[in-house]
Amino acid sequence: MNISESLKKLVQMSKISELELSRRTGVAQPIINRLISGENTNPKIATLKPLADFFCVSISKLIGEEGIQNAVSLASSPSTNLNKIPTFSIKHFAKNHNIKQLLSKITRFTLTEREVNENSFACEIDDDAMLPLFPKGMVLIFDVNASAKHKDFVLMRIEKTNQILFRQLYIHNEQRLLLSLNPAKEQELITISNKDVIIGVLVQTKKDY
Length: 209
Known about the structure:
alpha+beta, globular
């Protein structure tokens, strides 16, 4: 699947017109049309991000690297129930990554249209290792129960250094690696040990919370 097929499917599932999608995302209607028609196959991140946010999917799904199943979009009717999920800072996980035990300390929440389970949580990025896709300060929504696959984005606790890192997961044979994306920095590769823990798998990004 490519971005033309993915975007066309999302538009059809959400029953939204190109013009209305443009109005809600700020992406010009001619640009949306060129993406859907396949005329533009290499859009900028600045174009992809608002579209992915609107449909509540990852950029990987939007461009067709991953399949789209049941996307939840902001085109839903006003009566759609919003789900409230706890929002943590990275430091919350330094000593304890058990979500249920951490809930007693939470006073901040994120609203999402996405269906979430009781172990879903939101977390704010505190570094620039994942630029340009994930700028510092962006709120990310994770699913504790999701099974991490190759090229998923994960929040992970590294036992040896007691670091909490948001990185992309690479799996090759039996080896698992964490990869940073920022092209302005030397690419960081971290080998994952059996003692390291995946706290959650990224399922949605949000600008406003």
